[in-house]
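Can't paste images in this forum, so I'm doing it all in text. The chain is below; anyone willing to post the predicted structure tokens underneath?
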Amino acid sequence: MLIFGLTISGILVSSGCTPTPPPQPARAALTPPTVVGEIAVVDEEKHFVLIDLESNLYVPLPGTELQSRNAAGKIAHLKGSPEQKRPFIAADIVDGDPAVGDQVWR
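Text version of the structure:
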């Protein structure tokens, strides 16, 4: 009985003496920027665009942050909205000046 007691107390003592490493922050899955479509319509008055997804299988969820880029590299920030009718989806213009023909990236 004495040996069993020493073994248990030895385990308890040794397990409490080792420092515990701090928890690592969760790493977000990084996805490389990808072209999802092209701007087909810009409504500057209502601050939204229609994005033609063409044959792209990816459909951004409402609230997804997107960017449009023109040939000169000018960027506009967009936010996916719930209005979707394949192959088109709507996105709100957050800032910038998107134009018809700009590529849309996620």
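The CA atoms of residues 68 and 104 lie 4 Å apart. The beta strands are 35-43, 48-52, 65-69, 75-85, 88-95, 103-105.
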